[in-house]
Protein: NERD domain-containing protein
Amino acid sequence: MSTSKLLDYSNVKKVRSPNLQLQGLIAAQRRLLNTHPSVPLISSNQSSLQAGIGGEDRVANELSKHTFFMENFIFHDLSLYYYSKYQMDTFFLTRYYAIIFEVKNLAGTLCFLDNPPQLIQKKDNGEINGYDSPAAQVERYGELMTLWFGSRKISLPIYRVVVLAYPKQKVERPPSKTKILFPSLISSYIRNIPLDKIWLDNETFNWLSSELVNRHQFYIPAPICETFNISTSDVRTGVLCKTCGQLGMKKTIRSWKCIHCGSQDHLAHLPAIKDWFLIMGSKMTNTDCREFLHVDRRTATRILASMELLSEGTFKNRTYLMDFEGLLRTGKLLEL
Structure:
């Protein structure tokens, strides 16, 4: 049984992490000319990714509106490893069972095929697209979680559910054995699962929730230039002004000043450095920093030394790396 409550996230053990892939796509479009041949594909990837994240947020919001008689923990965007890496949109854990929710946000009419597993999308304009079956994906995640639990001597029933983010999504043919839900049906689905057996005692339940968080593996995407085969020379350099959105801030003694609107920002180099790592490459040299920020060697050295970057080599051969995983784990990525 569930009762309404106002956005209580106290049982959420893992929130959704900032999406580096999305940040890279957005940063690339800021720094490529609108006429660049890769921009349409990058924009399309951004739209698809944002639609997926929006669907996952709908599920998170729906779960936050309800509480249940049995204690539960929720993990959003949970990535684990068992022979291969797998990422679950939402993982719902109780002492009686667990549920994996795989969320899809695709417009039009959906047809789930079983042999071979495939999802066919028929848009209202007549366009037809094929995708990997989310039903097959969530079933596979269930198998991997069973093995992951088994490696820790844990036995727990695992339910698998595909959630369609919006009721406007029409299902022409559902999968043969995987449950399909809309977000508004999630609470009643959970409420109707029988609580036949307690599989986890309190100590194991709490230990397992911590183990899941500790074993989460953050996704660090390849730089955009590598992913989309873009020449780094096509990327516009310079420090971006967050006031007017133009590239062209100049370094002053203690700050940066925009040549377009006159705004000043003493930390304007931070998002520019992050842009470089998201777009250009995984290792930065002093020369890379100078050319990207339009500063001299001494200023570049001070900037690189002031940031919490990893480094390799010494003196002229030194390269710098952005510890994205560490920034995500500590929440400091939001400061850049």
Q: What stands out?
A: The first strand starts at residue 2 and ends at 4. DSSP finds ten helices and 16 strands in the chain.
